[in-house]
Specification:
Blueprint (H helix, E strand, L loop, with lengths): L1 H6 L4 E6 L21 E5 L6 H4 L6 E4 L9 H4 L11 E2 L6 E2 L1 E4 L15 E4 L1 H15 L7 E2 L3 E4 L2 E4 L2
Enzyme class: transferase
Subunit structure: Homotetramer. Tetramerization from dimerization is induced by ATP and increases catalytic efficiency due to a high affinity for thymidine. Interacts (via the KEN box) with FZR1.
GO molecular function, one term: thymidine kinase activity
């Protein structure tokens, strides 16, 4: 969507969470190594780029990975003429997926990772996996979770044949 706005010759800024350096330390990059075009701003908090976001000449603000430490995203809603939420495809059932389910039992609040760390799930599949995870955490056998094709031990993910 951001690149589409660039092609339309709108002045765009792309906000990248500064802590996410997986694919490129400066630019927003996808898991397939496609890089975002235009002005990229890195920030740990939106307040760090407030001046650039509210620049009257800026027509489009795109925020990558808005769920990171950008709880202030909701404060931008009243200033928006249009809001587009991009969703993935649920790896469980193929429906629209608006949830990311962590594959590991890591308890840290912020864990940056790709497909090795997270799975895109719809609400129904997310609730099912969360219930399964809850059953595991309440179970005396804390050594592993076994799902269809994965064995998870602690913070490690290993694919089963």
């Amino acid at each position: 969507m951001h690149d589409r706005q660039m092609i339309a010759r709108r002045k765009c800024v792309l906000v990248k969470y500064a802590g996410d350096t997986r694919y490129d330390p400066e630019l927003v990059a996808t898991h397939t190594q496609m890089k975002g075009q235009g002005i990229t701003l890195k920030a740990h908090k939106l307040a760090e780029v407030e001046e650039q976001i509210f620049d009257p000449t800026v027509q489009v603000v795109s925020i990558d990975e808005g769920q990171f430490p950008f709880p202030q995203v909701s404060l931008l809603l009243p200033y928006s003429d249009e809001i587009k939420q991009v969703v993935a495809v649920c790896v469980g059932c193929g429906a629209d997926a608006s949830y990311s389910f962590r594959n590991t039992l890591d308890k840290k609040v912020e864990v940056i990772g790709g497909q090795d760390t997270y799975r895109a799930l719809c609400r129904a599949c997310y609730m099912e996996e969360s219930s399964r995870r809850g059953d595991l955490e309440n179970n005396d056998d804390e050594n592993c979770i076994q799902s269809e094709h994965q064995l998870i031990k602690g913070d490690e993910l290993a694919l089963l044949d």
